[in-house]
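Lecture 7 notes: from sequence to structure.
We start with the chain below.
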Amino acid sequence: MNKKIRHKYLKSLGLNELQIHGKLERADFEEVFSKNFESIWILHDDASLLAEVTSELQHVKAIRYCPFESQDISWINKLVNLEFIYLEGPMKGVIDFDNFKSAKEVDVDLCKSTNSILTASISPEFLGLTKLKGDLADLSSSLLKNVRSLSLTSPTMSSLDGLSSFSKLTYLSLERCLKL
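Predicted structure tokens for the same chain:
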């Protein structure tokens, strides 16, 4: 088995997952597409070659992206059927979250690449925001309307003003919110 490319059933989402453990090369595409998958986990390395095959990834429902070095993630915009979006770590490019109308869970490190989540018109049930600077009251109303579970990690957050806007909220997690 190629240790760089792994296929695994992901119980938590009920999806078959493609795991990329190492820099993706063109020679890896045969192994990448050797089995069906609906989820992609890019762990620590460069998988930017996936930008060349986005037309073959339209079935993908979930992406977990957590590299050590900054990579252009703009290609993710073309995966319009994403329901589960987890983006953390250094990133380049820009993600337009309005592309993901089916998003159920979104968990992102906020940066220039992901700030569009703050004004997006999507309505996930789970929302995780790391490095939030600003107030919850500034988030778009459509983003808030279906959130049942909210996870916030923000050393600079000093207020929970706007929390009442999350009318369906049943779970709240606050981590490293040192100024609250």
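Points to note: The chain has a mean pLDDT of 89. Helices lie at 29-32, 141-144.
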